[in-house]
Amino acid sequence: MIKKNNRPILVYRFSSLGDIAMTVPVLRSFFQTYPNQKIVFASRPYAAPLFKEFQNLEFIPIDLNNNYKGLYGLLNLFRKLKKNKVKSVVDLHGVLRTKILNLLFKLTFTRVKSINKGRSERKKLIRKKNKIFKPLTQVHYRYSDVFRGVGFPIDLSNHEYPIKPFLSQESKEHKMLSNISNKKMIGIAPFAAHVGKSYPLDLMQKVIAYLQKDHIIYLFGGGNDNLKQLNIWENVYDNVIDLSNKLNLQEQINIISYLDIMISMDSANGHLAANYDIPVLTLWGMTHPFCGFTPFNQPQENSITLDRNNYPYVPTSIFGNKIPKGYENAFRSVDPKIVIEKVLEILYQTTPHHN
User: Fold this and answer.
1) What's this model's pTM, rounded to 2 decimal places?
2) Can you list the pairs that 229-237 forms with residues at least 24 positions away whose Cβ atoms lie under 8 Å?
């Protein structure tokens, strides 16, 4: 019989890779404070590599695309998760599916806490009229608050970055990195889930064309049409390497941890890089750092945003999926020169990048 004090905490977050990646610094801070407390983390199967570093965390892959559909499916998922005999539930997702799971756990007298997404503040930030333009609480802190709600306060200032992953000489990653001269390595993730968050590809091509002259560029991305574009860039430029179809997620994370900088949209790769203390230059279109999704521990000046004097409706949505009339070309107002100059400034500054 497992004593109640020794029972694990169940944590779930089922959404996009970026949202799941933002749990990593929080978990590191958690284990700094509670090294003997076990966590059972339920999430999408593809997210498993994010949690390899944690000794006291058991990852449970949940394939929601093919299983656990409807109310009957949720009951089956509850039964599966309940087998872990958890003492409390930390819901970092806060959607209908997890709210039903939360209710089922509460009926078994399990302590449950769900994320406060600050929906009313979000609405005020993204509305057109009477917009209240002020920063929302960072998602990392919202995650921390949920742990506090089940009796495990976390101080994110306790966070410690891990050492870079060891790469054996036989590994694909080692071979890709060892072929590089002394040039600095730049990661570029040019795509995002929505058009409103993606820097126009012809402008990104100008950034790549310039930076690859004196640096090595690794391209990251997904989606079949997108992958064709990355492949074109790899074939056209000497110092550009497309990793999207050569490496799996774990191998891509290993390469990311050795980069000198990552250029990312408001998307997952920025969070993956920030989790390894890599400087991240984030390009924001219809979204904005005030939405709370800035990569962990990155300074404000590492964000390039649209000029709100010209585009006052920004942020137009939390997820970048709404482009108001007249804003179709708003992202084109960010000159590639601005991006290039900021990259070079971050790459060759002498002071540490984070606060």
Assistant:
1) 0.94
2) 229/190, 229/201, 230/190, 233/205, 233/208, 237/208, 237/209, 237/212
